[in-house]
Amino acid sequence: MSATEGRASGLRAERELARKLWSRGLAVVRGPASGAGARRLFYPDLVVMYRGFVAVLEVKARSRPEGITLTADRVSRLFEFARRAGARVFLAVKLRGAGWRFVELEEGLRGPDGAVRVSAEQLRRGLDLEAFTRLVKASGELGLPGQPGKLSSPSSGRE
Fold this sequence. Notes:
Number of strands: 7
Radius of gyration: 15 Å
CATH architecture: 3-Layer(aba) Sandwich
Strand order of the largest sheet: 1-2-3-5-6
Structural class: alpha+beta
Number of domains: 1
Largest sheet: 5 strands, mixed
Shape: globular
């Protein structure tokens, strides 16, 4: 698959997921420049909201269940956006023939190089679309914010 085909597949996946989450009663915003390499500002692929609860999603599409690595720069930007929004961070992966999987990302998952690697097994155990929707709605109903403390940087002194 060429880089252009990969980007087109990713955009289709983002749009599909946004429609699915919207149809389940969640507010969804797709970053206007997600994946465009914005230098000064960062836009996550999707931001999902429900009654004060906010989740930031990095969206990927894969033809087979394989591990995914997010670069240190991408992860840092995701966590910074989430910190500012009081959001939780999730990797959302569309697996051909297996549907959507959601894995929550936390600072503690970062490797020594700052990247996050999510294994095929972690994806398999991740939340499906219905479970993710229930999590977001339950958190919103309970008035739970995202958990910015989980996403704090080592220099902030928060755990």
